Amino acid sequence: MGHIYPTGDVKIESEERLQGVGEDGAAAGRNGVKTEERETKEEGLAEEVMPGIRMDNGGAGGDRIVVVKQEVLSFAEDISPMSPAKKVKIISEDDQKMHVFDSSVNTRDGLLPNGQHQNGDIATAPYNEVPPEIEHITQGYQPIGKLITRLAQETWKNLLEVIDAMSEMTVGQHQLNSTSSPTYLNNHINSNGANSSPVNIQKKMKLLNFAKHRRDQFIKVLVLTQWSRQAADVGKVIDLKVWLDGQARLYNDAGYWLGELKRNLSAAKVPNPDLKTALEVLSTGKASWLPDLGYILPEPLTPRQMLKELREINTLLHLRLNIHEHENLPPHFKTYTIASGRATFVVPEEFEVDVSIADEDPSSQLYFIDFRLLFSPSLSEIPVGKLRDEIEGKANDVLKKEGLAGCYNFLHDLVLTNKINVLRQQAKEMARGKWSETIRLETVRRSLVLQYWLRKPGGKSWVEIGLMSGKSRAKDGVLREDGPSRIGLRWFRDGKEVKNPPIVLQLGNLSMESILKHVIALHIKHILTSIRDKLIELPLYARQNLSLSLSTSTTEPVDSSLKAELTPSRSLVAAIEPIAGRFALQPPSPLFASFEAALIALNDPALDAHRRIAGLRCLVAQEEIESRARCSGWEPLKTFIPRSDDLKRIFPTREPPRLSLFRRKTWSSRWLVGVSIGMGGEEWWVIELYDVSCLPSGFRPSTHTTYSLESSISYTFGEYFRVPIASSNGKATNPSYEFFSRLEKAAAGIISFFVNSRYLSQKRIHHTLRASNAPSPFDSGVRVPLFFVRFSSLIRQNIANKKTPWALDVLKVTYQGLDSDGKVVIIVEAQMQKDKAIPQIKLVRETIDKDVAFNPHWGLFALRTRAEVGEPVMQNIVERLKRIERLIQFVGVVQRSNLPCERVSLGRIVFSYSSSPPLKADVGFVGDRPMTIDLDAGNPHLRIKDYLVDLLNSEGTSTYKDFEGGAVVNGGGGAGGGAERSGFYLVTKIMHLSLPLLLAIGEIESQHVIGEMYVLHRSADWLQISYRAPTTCKVEIKLRQRRDEYRWFVSLNKSQYPTTGAPAEENEKTRAVTVRFNQLFLDSGEGWMGLKTGISASRDGVAEVVRKIDDLMWKIGGGEGGRKAPEQIRAETTEAIEKRAEKKELVHKEKVEKVEKEKREGGKDAETKTAGSKDGQQTKHSVVVLDE
Q1: pLDDT score, position 954
Q2: 11, 146, 540, 1113: which is deepest, by most CB within 10 A?
Q3: What is the SS3 assignment for 376?
Q4: Where does this protein have compositionally biased stretches of type Basic and acidic residues (predicted)?
Q5: What is the rounded CA–CA span in Å between residue 213 and residue 211?
Q6: Residue range 630-642: average pLDDT?
Q7: Which residues make Cβ contacts (< 8 Å) with residue 1036, sequence separation at least 6?
Q8: Residue 523: its pLDDT value, please?
C-alpha cells in the first residue's frame, strides 16, 4: 500500500487499489453492465478506503475531498518509447490552466525525441523565461458531500437489515408463558421479567452492536472533516515531492540508459556506409527503392489500457480454469495463481510453470510462458537458448495435444530425471573424496545403487534410489494407478531388505551425502539398539544397578553411541565409525583395544556383541576389585582355588562366576572374604575355615576338602555367611577404599553376631536374629542383621528378688562398625517400664555419657560397648544395664527435687543445690565400689561429708529411718517409693534442709576467735554449738518431722542449767544465760516459734535463730562493738566460695587435658581415671541418639 498524505489537492493510493477498481470495471463491462453503473461502482469502491480529503467548492459547505492514485503520476514512465505520444491533462484549481505532459518521453531510458524537451524547446526558449509551474494533481477528486450521502445510505440499509433480522428472532411459547405480564406505572410499561429471555437479550445486543459500529463510522468522518482544514498546505508539499521524485528518476534512468547503450554497442558491427541511399534520403527525405505497403501502425496502449487488458485476460483464465478446465486439471495442478495475464501452477519441490491464452475461445490452446525449478541444487532460471527453446516447443506441443495433464507429465518426468542425475553426480564426488574405498556406485537406467561399508564382515548393505512408476498390482493381478511416478528408495541391510524404512527423502534439497548419512545412522541405531535390548535383560542392568544409556540420531551417525557402566567408576562408550562401519570403544586402553578388534570381527554385531561386552564387564570388575583390595590392606589369595563341589555349596549360581578370595591381615587366618562376579552382580561372603586338628564336636571332615594356607595347618570349609552389603546410592558396589572399609565393618559385624549368638545359645539365653533391609546408622551402604535378646533371661540373677524388671523384656542389639583400634562397636537399645520410668525426665538430656544416650520423653535409652572381633560382649552389657538402673534412680530424685543437673554419666552425676552461693555436689558410682561425694572447697556441707557418704551407701536401711516416706522437699506432697527410700534421696534432702543452718554457722564462726565457740556434728541431722566465753553454753539443734514437715528444734543442753556444788559466780552466769534463753524461747519470728523449752524453726528460719543466739551470747559478754555486719560476712563468704569453685574447675580442666593426652599416647583406659576426668573425655565414635 502507498503512503497516505493529508493534502488539499491530492491523496495518493496504492496500485493494488487502482487495479481492484479496474478489474471490477472490466468485469462489469464484459457482463453487460451499463457504463454509468460501472462508474458508480468504481466511485463507491474508491470511497471505501477514504485515502485523503480536500475541501473544495464543489462539495457540501464549499469543500470537497478528491482521491488521486499514484499510478497517474507514473503513466509516462511505463509507456514504451516506441508508442506515440499520449497527453494527460491535469487541471489546477488556482488558474484552471492546462499543463501538457508528454508521455512519449522515455524517462526510463533517457531518450527524448528530436527537437523536444520536457520543459520546452531548448532552441527557442529564452533564458529569462520563467520555468513552468510544478504539476498540480487534481484528477480523481470526489466531493465530501457524496461521502456523507453514501454513509447515510449505508446506515439506513444496515438498519433495515438489523430490523429484519430481529423480526426473524421469535420468542417461544413457553418463554412467553414463563414471563409475567407487564405492569403500567406513570403511563410507562414495566415489563418485569419479559426482557430476561435469551432471544430478547440477543435482539438488544444486535441493535447495540449496530449502533456502536455506525457511531464509529461517523466519528471517523468527523475527524476527517476537521483534519481537511489544513489540506491545502500539505497538498503543495506533496506536489513538490512528486516533482523531486520525478527528477531523481530521470537522473537514475540516464545512467541506466548509458550503461545499456554501451553494452548493446559492444557486439554491433558497423556495416559499410550506403552513400547512395544516404544521399537520396538526405536530399529527398525518402528512398525510392523501398516499397510503400501503406501499413498504419496502431496507437500504442496506454498504461490504463494495458492494465485493463491484463485484467480481462485474468478474468478469462479464471473462467476457463474454474468452469471449463476444472474437471481436467491434474491433481498436482490444483494449486495455482492467476496474475499479470498468466496462470502459474506450482508443484512443491519440483517446478512451477506459467501458461496463458491467446484467444477468448475456451477450447483454444494454452501456451507455455515460463518454467522454473523449485529444488536445489538447480538452475535458478532456464537460460535463453537451445535448451529453453526445446522445452518451450515440446511443452506447447503437449499442451496442444494433451492439455495440462500432458504438460504436467512431461515436466514431471523431466524434473525427476534431472534429480536422479544430480544425485548421481554427488555420489561420484563422494567416491572421490573422504568416502573413497568405502562406497561403490552402480547406475542402472534411471536409478543408482550405492553400497557402503565395503570392508565390513558379514552381509552387504546398500541403498537403491530410482523412479517408481506409481502403479501397484492388486490381488487379482490388475495394475492400479496409485499416483504419478516418484523417486523412491530401497534399503538392504546385511543382505536383507528393510521394509518401509523410516527414511524421508528431502527432494526439495538434494544431498546424496545426507541420504547416505541418514541410512547409516539408522543402521548404527539398529545395531546399538539391539545390543542395548540384550544387555538390559541381564540382571545388573535390568535392576538398574548399572546404568545403560543409548543416544541415537537418525540424521547424524556420529551422534549415536551406547554408554554402558561396567563398574561405578568405569564406563564403556561404544560407537560405530560411520564411513568404515567399525566399532570404536572409549576411553582408549589396551584392554578395550583387544575387545574392539573382537567386536569388529563379528559377522552380526547386533546378535553377538552383547556377550562380548558382558564378558568385558566381569573382567574389568574383577581387576578393579583385586587392585583396590590389595591397596586397602586385603590380601588376594591367588593360589587358593576351591574345588567345584565347595563352590557350588558356597556360591549357588547357575553360571560359574569369576571368583576372588581375600584375607584381612589383622584377622585370624581362619576367616576369609570371597566375592563372586557375574552379570547378576557381586555377592560377598564371609567364610570360616576350621582347623582340621581341632574341629568342633560332631563335625565330620571326611565330607569336605582340606586346603593348606600355612605350611603346617590344614583347613576345611566351615560356616559361611552372605554379607548384605550394598552401595549407598542403590547401584552396583564401587570397590573403592571406602567400600572395603565398609566391607570390613560388615564382615566384622556378621562375625560378631555369629559369635554372640553362639555364646547365648551355650548359656541358654533367649535371643533371635532377624534380617534388616534398613541401612545401619553409621553407614547407609551396609545392611546388618538385628539381634534381639530377652531382658529377663539376660539379667535373671539380678532380678531374682524383684517382681518385674525395670525395662521392657526386649533388648535390641545392633552393630555399629569398628573403632579406630579395630574393635567391634555394639549398640544396645531398650525402653524402661512405664511404671518404672521417671515422668518428664528433663534433667537427662540426649547424651549422658560418651557411651550412653537417652530419650527423655519416651524413656528410651541406648548404650555402646566395644569388644575384640570374635569376642562376646554380653557380660559387659549386663554390668552397664545395672549402672543405668542406678543412674535412673538418681536422676529421678534430682528431678523430683527440682535440682539443676550439670553432668550425667554412668559413673557420675553432678547437680547444683544452691544458686546463692553457687553450690554443687559430685556423686560418683563405679561398678560395685562404694559411692562417693565430692564437694568444692568452702562448701558448708564439708562438715558432714562423712555422714553424707554413709547415708548415700546406706540405701535407706540405716538409722535414718525418720526420712522414709517423709515430706517432699520444698513443700511437696508425700511420695513414697524406692527412689525416696534410697540413700541418694536422703542425701539430697539433708543437704537441702541443712544448707541455711550451715551457712549461718559459718558466718558466726568467722566472727569469733578460735576457741570461743565450736560446732560438734553428731550426725547429718544433729549438731551442737558450744560457747566457752563469756560462759559455757551448749545449744542442741536437731531435725525432726512434725505434721508432714521437717523442722529444726533448738534447745539448751541440760548441763546449761545451774547445778549444786558449782561456784557461785559460775552459777550466776549460767542463770543469766538461762534467763536470756528462756526469754528467747518465749519469743517468735518469721520462720520460727518459741516453745518455752526451745524453738521450732523451718528450713529458712533456723538461720535467724542461730544468729539471735549468737547475738545473745555477745550481749552477755559485752563485746558487740567489734563484730562485722551480717550482710558483709555473707557477701565475703559467698565470694570466697565462688573463688574456690573457680579454682577447682581450673584444676579439673587440667586433669581432663592430662587424661586426654595420656589416652592419645596409649595410656591407660579412661574408665580407670577418676570420676572427675570421665566427663572431660571426648568420644571418638558416634553414639546413637534416640529421637522422640
Answers
A1: 78
A2: 11
A3: strand
A4: 33-44, 1140-1168
A5: 6
A6: 83
A7: 1022, 1024, 1050, 1051, 1052, 1053
A8: 94
Strands of the sheet containing 786-790, edge to edge, are: 767-770, 786-790, 810-818, 824-831, 860-867, 852-855, 847-849
Separation of alpha carbons 706 and 714, rounded Å:
6
Three cell numbers at 629? 583390595
What is the pLDDT averaged over residues 942-966? 67
Candidates 1016, 1015, 1018, 1021; CA nearest to 987 is: 1021
Over range 6-18, report the average pLDDT: 37
Angstrom distance (rounded) from CA 72 to CA 15 = 10
DSSP, residue by residue, 994-1045? HHHHHHHHHHHHHHS-BTTEEEEEEETTEEEEEE-SSS-EEEEEEEEE-SS-
Q: Pairing mode, if any, of strands 12-13 and 68-69?
A: parallel
In angstroms, rounded to a whole number, what is the distance separating the alpha carbons of residues 1137 and 92? 124
Residues recorded for the chain: 1188
User: H helices of 90-228, where?
Assistant: 144-168, 173-178, 198-227
Q: Are 453 and 438 in contact (CB under 8 A)?
A: yes
Closest CA to 1185 of 840, 852, 818: 852
Bridge partner residues of 565 (DSSP)? 571
Cα–Cα dist 726/1027, whole Å: 81
Residue 1016 β-bridge partners:
1024
The grid cell for 976 is 513414697
Of 168-182, 365-379, 870-884, 1034-1048, minimum mean pLDDT range:
168-182
Please, what's the b/e burial string for 65-91 (b: 16 or more CB within 10 A of its CB; e: otherwise)? bbbbbbbbbbebbebeeebebbebebe
In the structure grid, which three cell numbers stand for residue 784, read together? 546388618
pLDDT at 410: 92
Scored b (16 or more CB within 10 A) or e, 876-895 reads: bbeebbebbbbbbbbbbbbb
* Per-residue cell: 168: 426473524
Please give the Cα distance from 14 to 902 (Å, whole number).
98
Q: Is the pTM here over 0.70, yes or no?
A: no
* Separate counts of helices (H) and strands (E) for the chain: 25, 47
Cell numbers found for residue 622? 574383577
The residue with cell 540516464 is: 254
Q: How far apart are CA 22 and CA 163, in angstroms?
A: 35
Q: Is 50 exceeded by the pLDDT of residue 106?
A: no
- How far from the centroid of its chain's Cα atoms is residue 998's Cα? 70
CA distance 822 to 866: 10
C-alpha cell at 570: 568405569
Cis peptide preceding 377, ω within 30 of 0:
yes
808, 904, 932 from 851: Cα distances, Å: 20, 12, 22
More confident residue, 717 or 175: 717
Query: Is residue 645 helix, strand or coil?
Result: helix
Cα 234 → chain centroid: 63
Lowest-confidence segment of 6-10, 170-174, 270-274, 827-831 by average pLDDT: 6-10
The confidence score (pLDDT) of residue 515 equals: 93
**How far is Cα 702 from Cα 592, in angstroms, rounded to an integer?**
46
Judged against a pLDDT cut of 60, whether residue 843 lies above it is answered with: no
Q: What is the mean pLDDT of the chain?
A: 75
C-alpha cell at 539: 540382571
Q: Could you please report the per-residue DSSP string of 750-785?
A: HHHHHHHHHHHHHHT--EEEE---SPBTTBTTB---
Residue 968 and residue 896: Cα distance in Å, rounded?
A: 8
Q: Report helix, strand or coil for 485.
A: coil
Q: Please determine, for residue 1183, whether its predicted confidence score (pLDDT) is greater than 70.
A: no
| Phi and psi at residue 1048, to the nearest 5° | -90, 130
Retrieve residue 99's grid coordinates.
499543463
CB proximity list for 939: less than 8 A, separation 6 or greater? 919, 1137
Show the cell assigned to 1024.
551442737
Nearest CA-CA partner of 892 in 876, 914, 911, 879: 911
Q: What is the DSSP letter of 197?
A: S
